[in-house]
Queue: 4 jobs
Job 1
Amino acid sequence: MAPIRSLAVHREAQLKVRLVALLESVRPEERLAHDPLGIVHEATSDADREVVGLIAALLAFGNVVQIRRSIRRVLEALGATPAAFLAATSERELRQVLKGFVHRVYVGADLAQVLHGARTLRLSHGSLGAAFMHAANDCRLEVPPFAASHPRLYRGLVGFGGALRGDGEGRGLQHLVPDARKGSACKRLLLYLRWMCRPNDGVDLGLFSFPPSELLIPVDTHVHRIARNLGLTKRRDASLRTAIEITAALATFDAEDPVRFDFALCHLGLSGACPSRKEEAACGTCSMKPHCRHWPLPRARR
């Protein structure tokens, strides 16, 4: 094997080691204490966890303190058993109890529309997990070539997301539950699926039967920037195509569960440990420095 190729293989192996080490460096309870998912773990039944999880994931936009505050405000309106509350509440009543709610570009009417969609899905299929699986297995939906590696996930995002939006319109609703057919990264829906589909490891919940190997990493600005720095993608847009490319790169480390590295990538950005540009002081002790495009290693001697 040529020296340059050997160096590339070695660096790839070392990147996996460092990503795993970063994951293992934070205990589950520490991760949950500062994450919207921590609130989901407080629910006492699987039915409530999938409903609270949907609320928490869809509101995961902005500052984490603000996100958690908004989630708790919604849950106060829904009561101690959100799943039962939805089953017994009309869309009109949902709009009333959420009147005055605002989170970034979302208002109470947007969330009421989505929760009404969730209510309809739960009544039709028994659970949101079963509803997602029904959409994922609906082969009537044509899958575009760029999503051919993840056909069931793509169908699930389109069908499940469309059912949550219903006939509602408006910027807030379209941002709250974006349409995968328009190329959106669907970050919050993919975050929800990560929480629900990955095995119960003390962080994620393992409530849905969809295989983790078919998931895509949720891509926001932090994950996109870190992934570009580490050479996991060269794409400049935070789109569904980019999520597919990053996940494919992570699958070389763990084909059965590539999105388990989501926290490690997101943590580097959210924690401020990885600045938006090259900084000697901040980058000097970073374990990812040998893999970062801002700090290229000397060329191997031939």
Job 2
Amino acid sequence: MTQHQSVEESIQAFRQAEKWLFSLITDPKGERYFQEKSMEVRMTEFREQIERMGSFLELIGSPQNSFPSIHVAGTSGKGSVVQMLASILRANGLKTGYHVSPYLQVCLEKLIVDGKLIRPSEFAGLVAEFRAEFEAWTAHSERFDAIKYGEAWVAL
């Protein structure tokens, strides 16, 4: 929360930021559903996702290259592993941040900095900054016109 921002204004900004992120979900009914896809289609979509994210991240200066990172992948236990690694690194004096998915109650659970949720006002500011960069990217991108909801969270 900024010095001149009331609690109510901070909560309203948080809700507006969250609502905008939800607008990136592309299912026209607002529902999540599974569609069977061939391996060829899945690989094409995967390549497009990597290219789309690469294009966006390049526009904003490739921030992923500005800090050391650990990528945890697998079927189960990623959240626990990430939390343990972050705790070990913090205990050794390092600043940590991580993104996990999905969240259980509030979207702020997805972005953890030094073991704490970011404040709603920080989230609103982060989304506003991201949104401006997103809009600049969509205005200049010749190939892509949108980032998907999950990709937006990774970029945040």
Job 3
Amino acid sequence: MLAAAQTASPEAHDALGGLCRDYWYPLYASLRRKGLSPHEMEDLTQEFFARRVVTKLIFQGVNPGQGKFRTWLLNSLQNFLCNEWDRQHTQKRGGRHLHLPLDLQDAEGRYLIEPGHDLTPEKILDRVWAMTLLDQALTKLRSKYEREGEAALFDGIKDHLTGALDNLPYAEVAVRLGKSEGAVKMTVCRLRREYGRLLRAEIKRTVSSPAEVEEELRHLRAA
């Protein structure tokens, strides 16, 4: 992301857009816990990405070797709120600043189905961030199987990735897919390995060195 912020290439634009799409909701959920209204959070989240990320101001003075990306991003948003609170409340909603294609209409619906808890905004960020990483890895894995013409196979066995006790028995899954039980078990094992590899690749993008991947994975599992 730091390299992308130093250029004006289409690839850099796509990278910044990907950052907005991937990580706006964890920030929304963590700050929503502070008691801000949905309308306030929609405006503030949109303004943060439009005025700090797309303009690349957020990257000024960043040292990639210090701290986790999610922590830095949350701190950046909190600083933005402190600096912009008065200005934001004096402007008409939907003002003159650039808006981004964030699915903010769905934000409150997603937030309302989050389980009840007394977690701090920081802990909420960790938990939602972990779920976002899992979803990203799962989406990439399904895309791979879809490109190979095996989307139906993936959808039939994806619930076995976590090893949940309430999954359908392998024998029943095999009948539905027209495969042997042994073949289904082998496919699930391969799927889990691929899923773990993709998840680690996602985490690697958010830490400062490969050595931190396993530490971050343990932290997010706990979250």
Job 4
Amino acid sequence: MAETRLSDVIVPTVFDPYVSERSIHLNKFFQAGVLVQSPVLFEKLAGGSNTFNFPFWKDLSGDSEILDETNPMTVNAITADKMIARRQLRGKAWGANDLAAQLSGDNPIQAIGDRVAQYWATQYEKLLTLTVRGIIADNIANDSSDLVVDISVDNAANATAANKISAEKTIEAVLKQGDHFNEVYAIAVHSTVYSTLLKNDLIDYVQDSRSNLLIPKYMGLNIVVDDDLPVIAVTGGYKYHSYLFKQGAIAFAENPGKYVANEAYRDPKGIGVDSLYTRRQFCIHPLGFSWVKSADTATSPSDDDLSAAASWNRVYNAKNAGVIALISNG
């Protein structure tokens, strides 16, 4: 039986769509309804420029007028604004030693594809959390923390139950949205914070209508448990960021454009080495915010860029924003 080579498996017309689709469906934030695919972003990625403009109409405001037969109504302007999103480019390559076991499987395209798809799903989750950390940092720096509830203390050794996540403080965070509170759909927490919820018996399990799976819920919210959420070291312990999301709060698109998304290469030297190169061109954008980093000349933002307050600015009002932060000591 002939040995399977990467070049036998990496057939772009079959492999690329498989990996792309699996990457998004494996993403925990997509499964929770937080991350949504954006056809608009997909089209923008096919063009040029590192940033894309998204015009939107601001909410109408002001009191209604009493009608009478002599005084005409005042004609008010409809105000427009725009969001700015940032193109991102990332890549990763693996050699034969990393992939040898997958090549020997009964279905190597599925074995390798699942491994690559899971890698990129995890990377997108990490970049999403860095992005949210950035917009919350901007909110603290520039918007008086109107999307933040911080119940933490700087000396975690002195933390009490009041400094840890609770139903009461979660309600306080949800009500940062005022009368839009019922639009909050999901919560992302670190596993340490999830442990607090479990210990306090705050997790309910709802049976999925299409299977026998039991889905964990917290106060009716979908739960994402992700240890890439910010953990800030303080005296005697840590502070943890938990994020509450509206449905579809983060827009996403992946479009390789002119790049080769997945490429196999064989170096014939010695016994020969198979390598797999993966490249991703994508956009992860929090709705209601603009990318405003100055002197932005890099091909793609770094992790530090994504998480910096200076990179973001909110352009929606607080009630229409899709993310709220709850900061606790556990």
